[in-house]
Specification:
Distance between the termini: 81 Å
Oligomer: single chain
Order of helices and strands: HHH
Helix content: 40-55%
Shape: elongated
Strand content: under 5%
Number of helices: 3
Radius of gyration: 25 Å
Structural class: mainly alpha
């Protein structure tokens, strides 16, 4: 029952421009796929409609953000370098 309540809240709230755009494009492409008997366009329409209904994008929850690998208490170790010179002929 709790999953249904969460789904209903996701479906009915936070409608922004991109969500409306996905819904409109999905509906338009879906209509066109039915008229043209095109299953590939139907799949694309279903994908766009799913994104609109579930409020997700191609990147999921994190979007395109790259996770930070830096640790707060990390220490930098001293690195030794050795200079290499090419021989002259």
């Amino acid at each position: 029952m709790e999953a249904f309540v969460n789904f209903r809240q996701t479906l009915l709230s936070n409608w922004h421009f991109m969500r409306w755009l996905r819904l409109g494009l999905g509906s338009f492409v879906g209509y066109q796929s039915i008229m043209a008997h095109d299953p590939l366009a139907g799949f694309i329409a279903a994908f766009l409609l799913f994104q609109a209904v579930s409020n997700t994008g191609c990147g999921g929850v994190g979007g395109c953000a790259v996770p930070s690998l830096a640790k707060k208490n990390s220490t930098v170790e001293d690195v030794e370098f050795e200079e290499v010179k090419a021989e002259k002929k």
